[in-house]
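Justification of computing resources. Each target in the renewal requires a structure prediction run like the one illustrated here; the chain below, 55 residues long, is used simply to show the kind of job we budget for.
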Amino acid sequence: MATALIGTAMDEARSRGCTRIEVWTGGDPGHEPARRTYDKAGFTALPVIHYYREL
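Resulting structure tokens:
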């Protein structure tokens, strides 16, 4: 079902002239199913470092 939803979203984005879709997810084990789904849909994982600091 998730793959179909991604495909529908990509089709809609293309029809509106979008040329890129970005999705973000966590790198922890709990997000592994999401990462597999995005990999299966052809997304490329990028090495990103996200900095934050609590005040």
